[in-house]
Amino acid sequence: MHRLFTGFFLIGILGALGQLLSGDLEAPARVVAALWRAADLAVEVSLGLIGVLALWSGLFRLAEESRLADRLAGAVRPLLARLMPSLRRDPAAGAAVSMNLAANMLGLDNAATPLGLKAMEALQADNPRPRRATDSQIMFLVLNTSSVTLVPVTVLLYRAQQGAADPAAVYLPMLMATTVSTFVGVALTARVQRIPLRDPLLLAVAGGWLALLGLLALGIWLAPPALGSTLSGLLGNGILLAVIAAFFWAAWRARVDSYDCFVEGAKEGFHLAVKLIPYLVAMLAAIAMLRASGALELFLDGIRHGVAALGWDTRFVDALPVALLKPLSGSGARAAMLDVMQSQGVDSLAGKMAAVMQGSTETTFYVLAVYFGSVGIRDMRYALWCGLGADLAGLVAAIGLSYLFFG
């Protein structure tokens, strides 16, 4: 990550120098001014998120304390046993893996990472070659880098903070894109591991999920354009309200003090918003250097001309920085998404596409480094390639679905 960060700044400085040598005397001042604006924007965005992050952190704490995540984990455990056969011999590892994926599905980011580390540790206990990843560990990593998130709150929060007319309008295409990512990642990994995917339970779950998404997409696609966008937003907002209702219902059933629990969770959201500031300052400043120096536009123009030569629509090129950074850095992709929203408009095609891209996959290199590094694995075998295959499928799907829904 430090090489990427340093490279962005050095390329930006070289770009400004090139503009200066070509006669643009304003280039250095323009790049420096962009650097200051990016730093101010990072603080403004982070502070603007305090309220909504505190709100959702409080709501998510209800799901944790009411053990709603535990029950969801129990529901997905039989499915996971088909994809990771070793879990049948290790109930403890199965519980940890299920809890991690359930937390991811509910958007419980703070809970998902520590649960994922516990799951990796449990899977490592039966690893005969501790420095080499097992098949189950690789499948677990691929599910994490591509897992379907039913409540992609973070992306919706950023859209709301940037003034989107309907922040949830991207919900359905985002859900469909991350489904493509998950299905492709599982299919690639299962093929390498020779796991049969024709199991009745796997086919039933996959078929039912695809049928549901297909019906929703067909209804929105057949509707008039304005109504289709409205229906997509209505669906996203409706699901979010249903999730909130489920959180409170589960807390009531478990006799959890919802007020105190919510307040404790909201405190974490406040601290999280403050912690985001240095990461956003770093990456927004680096991307601002690239853009102000002309280096980013030069790169994107090269892609744009190549795409135009093929006769394709070039509007997706403006959102490509998110796709390029997503596998490498979560903070970098987040900053790129904000940069696209700021430069192109939060409700433009590029702005919406950037949001769908951000919610379609996880940060593969980060997940591999943290999860494998936590248990001392050095030989990751084919995990990287399966994870990147899932990323590519999700990002391509994000482009296509954005054109379908918003183009």
Level of helix content?
over 70%
Stretches where pLDDT falls below 50 for ≥5 residues? none
Number of strands: 0
Global morphology = globular
Tally the helices: 18
Give the overall pLDDT as a whole number: 83
Give the radius of gyration: 22 Å
Distance between the termini: 34 Å
Strand content: under 5%
Helix-strand makeup class: mainly alpha
Series of secondary-structure elements, N-terminal to C-terminal = HHHHHHHHHHHHHHHHHH
Could you describe the largest sheet, including whether it forms a barrel?
none
Structure notes:
The protein is mainly α and 407 residues long. The protein is 78% helix and 0% strand. The protein has 18 helices and no strands. The protein has helices at residues 2-21, 27-48, 50-65, 68-83, 91-105, 109-124, 135-146, 153-161, 171-193, 200-222, 225-253, 258-292, 295-309, 320-325, 330-344, 349-360, 364-374, 383-406. The chain is globular and about 70 Å long. The chain starts with a helix and ends with a helix.
Keywords:
mainly alpha, globular, 0% strand, 407 residues
Topology:
Layout: H1 2-21, H2 27-48, H3 50-65, H4 68-83, H5 91-105, H6 109-124, H7 135-146, H8 153-161, H9 171-193, H10 200-222, H11 225-253, H12 258-292, H13 295-309, H14 320-325, H15 330-344, H16 349-360, H17 364-374, H18 383-406
